[in-house]
Every structure is written in structure tokens, then in C-alpha cells.
Amino acid sequence: MTTAAHNKISTQWHSERVGQPLTLVRWGHFGQPVLLYPTAGGDAEEMERMLMLRVLRGLIDAGRIKVYSLDSVAAREWSDTSVDGAYKCALLDGFQQAIHEEVVPAIRNDCDDAGAEIIAAGASIGAFNALSSVCRWPDAFKAAVCISGSYDIDRFMKNAPAQDKHLYFSMPSRYLPHLPEGPLLEQLRTRQVLFAHGGGRWEDPEQDWGMAAALGKQGIPNRVDPWGEDYDHDWPTWRAMIPKYLDELTRD
Asked: What is the topology classification, in CATH, of domain 2-249?
């Protein structure tokens, strides 16, 4: 089913890769496609409820960006301790596969551009998904905006096999240091990752610095911006940061 109002379109389909429906929502009429990932338990319309679309309205109305968001399918299961760790790992891998094989084609079709390169963005676990999109699929994603990121997700995967291949290939912190020279790494070196975090409550700046170091060792362009103690791990911080970096990345 598809609905449209005020340049907002919502589409849903059943994904075999995650074994459940996926909802993709789009706001805007023209511009650089941006896939904005929700937080851990969020759905495709979280960004609208949490007023992120309000602070992005200027960029959207100017035709500089089209914003897409989807359900946080894999991360919804992470906090449930009754769910088997191996299943969580397989679901995360399936979710990332669905991004490349289902969501990216849907965005490109909506943009009427079979080669459109997407900016991925998100906060908290959304930052993990944004980073993962660029690192795993640099053929589709040109940049990542990673805000207040949580990149070490092992704590959610308890009881998973120690050498789980689904988890390994879904976590940039695991596979990036071991990427060999070749086409994938060459393409990643043409991409860009922006990290930003506050110095306030619940923030963990070392997560950004650790990932930045791993990217830097492989020659992948990145930058870390600390914002100071007035910025907590919460929506007011993210509403300040995300528009700034999307503005930066979409200037002519």
C-alpha cells in the first residue's frame, strides 16, 4: 500500500531477507537521496514524530535532499534477552542485505536514477547502520553521517557463536581492519564518513574515535567533530547535528 501527502510517500513490502514487512517512507520531491536510519527501537516514521523532519524542512523544500527512513527491524530484537544470539546475528546480516538488494533499488527507482548514490545518516544505533551501509555497500552509498554512534554491538549478541560469520561481516569494527587491497577498499577510499558527538550525558566519544582510527588506517576519509558538554545523547543534540552535516554534504 502506498499513501502520499505533502510530498510524503509510504511503501511497504514483505522482505524474505528479514522474514517480515519492511516500510519505507519518503519526504520531499527532489534532491540528494538521504537514508536516515531510526534509533534502535524506531520505525519508519520516528523521524517525523521526533521533529527531525521539521529541522530538515528547509533542505527538503529547497530540493536539496529527499529523506527516506525505514523500520529498525534488526535492532528491535537486540534488547530482548530471550531472543537467541545467533538469530540476532543472522537478522542483522539479513537486514543489511535487504538494504542493498531492496531498499537501495526502491530509492533509486523513486529518484528515477539507476545509479543514484545515497547518503546514509543516523544517531545512536542509527549511526551504526549508517556506517555499515557505506562500509559494506560503497557502490550505493557515498557518505555516512554518524551521530552519537554506538558501534560495538557485541553486548546485544550474547550467546552468539564466537566466530559467527553473519556478525563478522555486519560489524565494520570487525572486518574493516582486515580488508585486503582490492576494488572494495579502493572504492571505500572515495567515500566519506562524518562522526559527531556531544560531551554531555550518556555520550561515549571513544566509540567515534575508535572507528575513525580504524577507517584512517585503511585510508578511508573521515572526520570527528566533538560538540561539547551541552550536547547529550538525546534528540535535541541530533536535531542540531544532522541538518548541519546534511547541509555541508549537499552544498553545490
From this structure: Rossmann fold (3.40.50)
